Amino acid sequence: MSAGATNPDRLVVVVHGVGDPQPGETLSLFTRSLAEDERPLHESQLTLWLNEKPDRPEQVKTFPAHVRKLQLKNESVELVEGFWGDLSQVQRGFLGIIFGLFQILFGLRYVAYVAADQPGVGAFWLKRLGLISSRILHGPVMAVTFYLAVLSFAVVVTQVMWPESYTGIVWTQVVLAACAAVAIFAAQTGAKVTRSRVVQRFWFWVCITTAFVTGLMLIKFLFVDTRELYGQYTNAVHPGLIWYCRVLVVLLGLLWFVETLVVIAMAVCWLIARMQPGVNRRALNLAFLLPALAVGIWGQALPMLWVAAREGIGKTVKLDKFQAIFDEAIPMLGIQFVMFIAISIVAMFIVIRYLQQRSVITAEAFAAGERVPRLIVHPVQQLALAVCTLIGVSLVMSISIVENMGGSWHDFAMGRLMAESNKYAVAVIVPLGGTILFLLPRMRGVFDIVLDVVNHFYFRATNLKDWLDDDDEFDIRETTFESGALFFSRREQIIGRVKRILTHYRDEFSHRPELVLVSHSQGTVDVAEALNDPELEWLGNSFAKVSLVTMGSPITHLYQHYFGHLYPPLSDRFWKPLHQRLDRWVNIFRIDDYVGLDIDFGHLPANEADRDAMQQNHAPGQIERHFTHCSNHPVGPRGHSRYWSDAEVLQILREQIFAPQSDSRTRAA
Length: 669
Prior knowledge:
The chain is α/β, with parallel strands linked by helices. It contains 22 helices and ten strands. The strands form two sheets. The chain has an eight-stranded mixed beta sheet with strand order 2-3-4-1-7-8-9-10, sandwiched between helices. The chain has a two-stranded antiparallel ribbon with strand order 5-6.
């Protein structure tokens, strides 16, 4: 049969994983890796444009499925790529990394919410408080910070152009009105160009902050004695625009105080939830630590930005009263800086241990039970995060209470320690920022992996309007719509593309070829869930044999480990459709892969003889599942990427999947 034949012996669906490959890139790499060295690669290429919603022809939205038709030994193979890189929200370049980092910080709330979605009062309130923490942080805290930045910029500009103009009564009102107009325009524009509800909520709070400052301006201008405002000044109240900056700084401090109260309440609920029998404690740990981590990162980043702005403004214009505003604020930067150092030391220790173990581990040692340290949320790192969170929140609370009672944090030893830490933080802000910028491109793989998990758990609570509109983000049918239910839209889009490709070939072929799905990293989870979908019950009648190849799969190492309440053991009845449709499951992994190692297949029989014995030992009908031949295949330590061109991986594929004798094996009718 020629390479361009319409009825191939084997259909191979290739689903990429972590990263941002171009359409067709993974397929081309994998195709040429399969070619034999001694024989040229005879292939034909084409691109299928498939409708994402075939049941809605009026909504024309297509995606490309690149195809390669080639001859391998004595059989013809058609390979098609299940591409989803455009749905992963990952972008190339340095700006893409920055954008991805913000997406992670804004998206951790989704992972925490799903992790806390477990039975018990403690888990329920942990889930709710995590959502409240995120909404405070990404709503009023960010909005007040944004407005304070706009107002500070206006103060500096007016001081440069017209010295001391910021103290004038009329000029203050003019500048405040201009800042309000800028903020409202930015909010209206930003709300229109984004579809993220988190970002839209941020712009909503920008409008609320604008209304607050504008109302305060009118009250002071119309009802407060101007002699009191602009006559005798004190150290606490500064004139003109500086006074409004001071109000926003105090408001920002109050919001951080409320945020710390929420984190403390989350810690209490976390401890209560862990005592509930039958809960997944690892998931509960994430449900508490991820929101706390987001608070810690923003609590470090925002004060550092303000300190940098203060130092920069001080070198541009002389505004002592403006700079004093931030000196009087709670020393958040010093607290966060100490916590950052402690967490960084622990992280460096874990990475060093990982690299040391990676350099000496062998396949024999792995088979004997030796493992490289876990990099993704290592237990020691979890403990460090929890301890630093509780200490940092307690310090902020203590200092806030002292300030509110009329005291000063300078009068206490811990306050003076934080003040000293503040000085060191200011001293290292420039080299630390440069180091972070230098390391960001080298941490691209880490960001991609974390962002894949965030996108996997990205959800929206459905409502009637979402179902009626059924926009690009949704594909909610009447049979599956449930108001208020969580709809994992990005995950469903990826799974929908895999199902759409399989449906296309079901209708295209007039015979029953063998089907092989080869996937990597996050793609392995999406393919497994697609095969487990009840809608694919026709799969066994359309293909003679169905095989699944997973490479570097996080199914066990990540999802079953941390989200066991959502991803039960593979022997659970939850996965029954998957095992009914699958004849063979080959899992390939590197022994130092920090994302995916061996898959725990549970008590599933490993070979045909064991399956026959199990069937004979049970009464007819007692075993309903079609048992899958499952096998793990470790390869040498080379990390998580470049599986598609790994010679050792390809050799296993040739032996397990593309061997000539596999032609004769077909699914029993």
